[in-house]
Structures are given as structure tokens and as C-alpha cells.
Write a structure and sequence with these properties.
Helices cover about 85% and strands about 0% of the residues. The chain has helices spanning about 10-40, 40-65, 75-95, 100-125, 130-150, 150-185.
Amino acid sequence: MTTTTPAPAELRGDLRHFGTGLIIVGVIGVIAGVLAIVYPDLTLLALALIAGINLLLLGALSLADAFSDDGDTTTRVLAALLGVLGIMAGLVVMRRPGESLLAVLIVLGIWLVITGVVDVVRAVAVRQDRAMRLLGGLVDIALGGLVLALPHVTLGTLAVLIGIAFVVRGVISVVRGVLLRRVVAP
């Protein structure tokens, strides 16, 4: 018979705060998912603009890194080239977000598949929350596969698919947070 020793109060408090954080992130994810489903056109435009801003900022950071004293000349030149390309790509996406959506869609599809595969592998490797991770991973793989298999059709339903993924991940996060808070309750 295995007995578990109660966790020290400090650790229980930390785990309780982590559970609360999971619940908050889950609720935000559910809200974002519902908004993406209700306002798909606005969601797509916002997604493209966020991607453009991100590219611009990452390009600027890479360009700044090129002028640092770290690394040899070759890596600094490559960092400068990457920085300029990132800034240019960011400006193009921000200037024409509607036309950039297909590229953003493909990147998102790849991200969903990779995230799903990682969650499935983690579900197999780690016993804790196995079912939730497996469910989230399989949903991400399925949605990412649909995005990649039917990009032009998917572009019209991208926001809905993103919304569904956010809602599923949000609910899973809330459930994990509630379960964690129950386990460490005083």
C-alpha cells in the first residue's frame, strides 16, 4: 500500500497558484476562441497584423544583434540579413494583411501539427494528465492537418478552426487547473 506524504505548505501554495494560473489562461483561451468564432473576418485581419508586427520586431532584434560584439563576422552578417528580411516581411504583412493570410495560415497549420505531435508524445511519456494532453494533441493534429490539406477552403474557416482549438485548449487548461487545485487543497 502506497501512502503519499502531504506536500509542504509552501509547495502546496505554489501548486495552488499554478492551478489558478491554468484556470485564468483557460478562461482567456475560451473567450478568445468564442470571439474568433463569432467575428471570423476581424480575427483573420488581427492575426495577420499580429504576425506582421511580430516579424518586424524579430527583424529589428536580429538587426540589433548583428551590431553586437558577439560572434564572428559571418554570423553577424547573417543576423543582419535576417534582420533586414524580417523587417521587410513585417512591413509587407502589415501593409497588406489580407493578402498575407495564406502564408500565415500555412504557418499556423504547421504549428498546430507540431504542437499536437509534441502533446501526443508527452501524453505517452508522462502519466500526469495523459488523457487531456492526448485529447488536445489529437485535436491540434486534426485541425492542423485540415488547414494544410485544404488551405484555400480553410482560409474561409480559419478563424472558426482557431476558435475551436482555443476553446478546446482553454477548457482543458481550466480542467487541469481545477484538478490541480483540488489535489493540493489544504
